[in-house]
Amino acid sequence: MKQMKMNIKRPLTRSLSKTRVMQKALAYDTGLSKATINNYVAGGNVRPNEAVDIANVLRDPEMSMQIGHMMLGLFKSFNGDAFYHDLRALDAFDEKESGEEQAAYNEHHIRQLISMPRRTAEQDDELMTWLNEVMDAVLMKITLLVAGTETLGTTPMDLLQARIPYYQEQHYMRGDDPTWEV
């Protein structure tokens, strides 16, 4: 399978300028070579894990959000005219996708499959079918989230920032992780 790569030239250039971090320092802090960082600034493609490492070092929420957009295509995946910016239609599609995901979960006995140390090729196919339904449901949820935040004049990053203390309190996120400092 081909590894996904992406171009982070624009957000990286903006973030370096905004944070005033030098390429040499970024290279050192990420463990990448200066030539590699220079290549990314010039428009070379980067592996997602390296893009996340770079964003974590720069500690720039805007860049992190842009990388999230690029990595998963979440906010651009479901932007068709059929429902985008129509919260009622999005809600209906969300319900449909969630229902299909739950039906696949039940039909393929996913709880049992997930706990199996070894599976047959047919069982892996069943798991893949469910994972595809999960992805559809997640993308629909995120599309609904983005449309809802746009309606309220905020962003998913603003919601996340406000919610982090709760996630830390619930032990969903570690409080000592500088990536998630509030």
Uncertain stretches of 5 or more adjacent residues: none
Helix content: 55-70%
The overall average pLDDT, rounded, is: 83
Compute the CA-based radius of gyration: 19 Å
Report the sheet-strand fraction: under 5%
Total E-strand runs: 2
Distance between the termini: 38 Å
Number of helices: 10
Folded structure, characterized:
The protein is an all-alpha fold and 182 residues long. Helix content is 70%, strand content 2%. A two-stranded antiparallel ribbon has the order 1-2. The longest helix is centred in the C-terminal third of the chain and has 32 residues. The chain is globular and about 55 Å long.
Keywords:
182 residues; mainly alpha; two-stranded antiparallel ribbon; 10 helices; 2 strands; 2% strand; globular
Give a brief rundown of this model.
Helix content is 70%, strand content 2%.
Protein topology:
Elements lengths: L5 E2 L1 H11 L3 H8 L3 H8 L3 E2 L1 H11 L2 H12 L1 H4 L9 H21 L2 H6 L5 H32 L3 H14 L13
Antiparallel strand pairs: 1-2
Helix pairs in contact: 1-5, 2-3, 4-5, 7-9
